[in-house]
Amino acid sequence: MRELTELLDRAGRAYYQEAREIMSNYEYDRLYDELLKLEKETGTILSGSPTVRVGYEVLSELPKERHESPMLSLDKTKEAEELKEWVGDHRSLLSWKLDGLTIVLTYREGALFKAVTRGNGEVGEVITSNARVFRNIPLRIPYQGELVLRGEAVIGYREFERINAEIEGAESKYKNPRNLCSGSVRQLNNEITAKRQVNFFAFSLVSAEGVDFENSHEKEFLWLKSQGFEVVEYRVVTAENLSETIRWFAQQIEENDFPSDGLVVIYDDISYGRSLGRTAKFPRDSMAFKWADEIQKTRLREIEWSPSRTGLINPVAIFEPVELEGTTVSRASVHNISILRGLELGIGDTIEVYKANMIIPQIAENLTRSSSVEIPEVCPVCGGATEIRKVNDAESLYCTNPECQAKKIKSFTLLVSRDALNIEGLSEATLEKFIGKGFIHEPADLFRLERHREELVELDGFGEKSYENLIENVEKARKTTLARVIYSLGIPGIGLAGAKLICRNFQNQVEAMLAADVEELASIDRVGEVLAGNFVKHFRDEEKKECFYHLLSELSLEQEQVEGQEQDLTGKVFVITGSLAHFSNRSALKELIESRGGKVTGSVTGKTDYLINNDTASGSSKNKKAKELGVAIISEEEFLKL
After folding, report:
1. Residue 356: exposed, middle, or buried by beta-carbon count in 10 A (0-12, 13-18, 19+)?
2. From CA 160, how far away is CA 471, in angstroms rounded?
3. Pairwise CA distance, residues 392 & 335, whole Å
4. C-alpha–C-alpha distance, residues 140 and 131, integer Å
5. 3-state secondary structure of 326
6. Neighbours of 256 (CB within 10 A)
7. Do 573 and 607 touch, CB atoms closer than 8 A?
């Protein structure tokens, strides 16, 4: 019991305070249930046991505040029959148990007065300024008395994936939406919170002076809706329709954007629920239903080693396909070397797999434990040497080759961007996956993806339709200009405007352009020695030069229509800010300025001639700077008259 208490305490601290996982939810629940059973057998509960302690002490610089009434956990069951017996003939409400961060909101005189996190159940953190920028919290409500309610702050899977795609290091990515939400809600700067799509769903009304809810929790929910709150999705149940309603919720999980780790049922009769009282940890008027994990036995076929842009190589278990929660599953992340070794995995082993929260495939147990998996000594992408490094108490495998293609995600991201080859549907996350699978080694491989059709349509989250859309976008991208190709190569300092200047100077003749020396290139107006040197250096690298020719062989180059273009903006420097009405985006306006000899920069300086801003009277920082420096502020209309 002491060993289990210490182990569960470490896992809880890691998960709630440090936003990392040292064991799966499945393993935590298994150990927790084992401890609970031992406590019932012995009649003894040790000090600090997670079965009686509620939450953990908060660790941050945010102000702390004690809750007026303790926020208890819920007793739980994984058995539908046990829940059915608990509900009995009582009219009850069954709702999602959302997996986010519990928040207490207080309103006074119709305005949001205070927001406090659950914390350890006794003391929470004051996050009022952050709550004000949640996507769906009403800042003012019709009710003028004091209202106290509780709810869950959550971030959806789509937003979670978007934010993770923008994070450089694989080890810096958030492990799950709950960790991301916790970090977002507890920011010291609420500008960061505002950029993340945090939603709030009310699940409990604590008090509302002078309002008669007719002894019904459902009436509380309906009243909260009338005040502008989103409440957690619920269904009215009794023992008769409980099993059917649980199945309905289970079917919704696949389409549900918000993470859930089960359901909650509460008696609708408020007085009856209160009359039952509470234990030291649980109220007796409600209970959590945790999904009974559907576990299937299967055979491990292989371990696939998947490299990332940081050099981290993740082990992925490939096993004989099994049906889990209504879908066919054949792969699961093993996360790191420590977990791989802990499971003692070997090819051909009999393993048990399940879906965490009915969504994410995981290995629950290895029944045969042969430990025969060999950790690769070379990277599967580049063949460079690998090494095992210890980070945050976990061992992980890394590629040591600085030139590994898997580390060059950023260069491929530029390559497919709008101003470069403009291949829609290739996000950074998708590129990382393709490179890890060995589909892409050099730029030209982007136009050879049809060779990997069978493997592509089998990728998780991809499928036939996604494949067809991608190939269609790739075919569209074949028709482009030489300037866009040069820009796509990521030569230091050479943007699209610089690439156009060079290409125009050589009339789009590739051989002449590549044969030019630094002096010849530097003589081009607005190129200069530094950019000329970078250009020459890039193409002196025979491997890069060969890759460039391979790419050109896949493309159909169009000639840019530049003859006769007036150069009436030569020598003029512009800055663009704010929204546009006459141009689809800033890139389109920038392209026009540069085609007529002008230059566009990002910040207002003494060298700026014009700041283009349709809101010429705004108090923005760029407008203020322009006024200080005597720079003309003009609208699009005024620009077009120049």
Report:
1. middle
2. 27
3. 13
4. 13
5. coil
6. 17
7. yes
Say whether 97 is catalytic. Answer: yes
Measured CA to CA, the distance from residue 304 to residue 338 in angstroms comes to: 16
All structural domains of the chain, each given as residue ranges with its CATH number in brackets, are: 2-11+13-42 (no CATH), 57-289 (3.30.470.30), 296-399 (2.40.50.140), 405-477 (1.10.150.20), 481-558 (1.10.150.20), 573-641 (3.40.50.10190)
CA 8 vs CA 55, 160, 224, 293: distances in Å:
12, 27, 37, 20
| Residue 353: partners with Cβ closer than 8 Å, 6 or more residues away | 295, 296, 298, 319, 322, 324, 329, 332, 361, 362, 363, 364
pLDDT tens column, 283-341:
899 999 987 677 899 999 999 998 876 788 889 999 999 988 667 889 998 988 999 99
| C-alpha angle 77-78-81 in degrees, rounded to nearest 5 | 85
DSSP state of 631: P
**The one-letter amino acid at 333:** S
Closest CA to 99 of 325, 267, 343, 290: 290
- Provide CB contacts within 8 A for 183, sequence distance 6+: 19, 174
54 — pLDDT class (breaks 50, 70, 90): very low
Burial of 393 (0-12, 13-18, 19+ CB in 10 A): exposed
Out of 76, 97, 408, 599, the active site residue is 97
pLDDT attached to residue 349: 95
What's the rounded Cα separation, in Å, for the pair 522 and 502?
10
Name the one residue in this structure whose structure tokens are 């278990």. 317
Q: 582: which DSSP letter? A: S
Helix (H) or strand (E) holding 181: helix 177-185
Q: Residue 141 and residue 164: Cα distance in Å, rounded?
A: 34
> Collapsing DSSP states into helix, strand and coil, what is residue 123?
strand
pTM comes to: 0.51
Contact predicate 305/279, CB 8 Å = no
Strand partners, 77: 289
- Phi first, then psi: what are they for 477, rounded to 5°? -75, -15
Q: Which residues contact 578 (CB under 8 A, 6 or more apart)?
A: 613, 614, 615, 618, 620
Phi and psi angles of residue 343, each rounded to the nearest 5 degrees, phi first = -80, -10
